[in-house]
Amino acid sequence: EAQVTQNPRYLITVTGKKLTVTCSQNMNHEYMSWYRQDPGLGLRQIYYSMNVEVTDKGDVPEGYKVSRKEKRNFPLILESPSPNQTSLYFCASSFLRSGLNDGYTFGSGTRLTVV
Amino acid sequence: ILNVEQSPQSLHVQEGDSTNFTCSFPSSNFYALHWYRWETAKSPEALFVMTLNGDEKKKGRISATLNTKEGYSYLYIKGSQPEDSATYLCAFKRDAGGTSYGKLTFGQGTILTVHP
Q1: What is the mean pLDDT of residues A28-34?
Q2: E-strand spans in A1-115?
Q3: A56 contacts B46? CB cut-off 8 A
């Protein structure tokens, strides 16, 4: 089944404790992206990657890191989480020329709480 | 940051009603307009990807139109059912060469509640 797999689904952590949210897709998509969803603010892009070893900042990159060492994986790293990073996170992927196909495929989301 | 606006923010309708919402986006450097349906506790799912001015897409009782010259798209639901209750997101992709290729900017969504 074509899918984007995100883990974990839920995570409660403490301020300053490094964490990684994993994202993996099995559709050979070039493009992968991380979004966060906050009430009243919509989906905001954190980082994106257009291919292996090609990553760039989105609209709200502060406090996050990513890597793209393999085509299918795009982990999101919070080196020192803070309470303002409490949010719902989504990973998404698509073919690079996604205007011509079915759009983004989203993961199931990660609900992160930083206390 | 690009401005993608959706209206209304929320909508309550009765089962059987037809409804529509609007997505406004920049009219310059258009590449594509996406619509997504997002049910509670699930992840967004793509409904339509629209690329040409005048495009009309249809999937069952849901359809969408696109006007790139004036920068808006409408999503229509005919004969709403309770299972249509969801947040409907539109997303705009700008044509600006390789650096923005694939980047979608989302609107805040329209929350639709269909009452039995």
Answers
A1: 93
A2: 4-7, 10-13, 19-25, 31-38, 42-51, 54-57, 65-66, 76-78, 87-94, 105-106, 110-114
A3: no
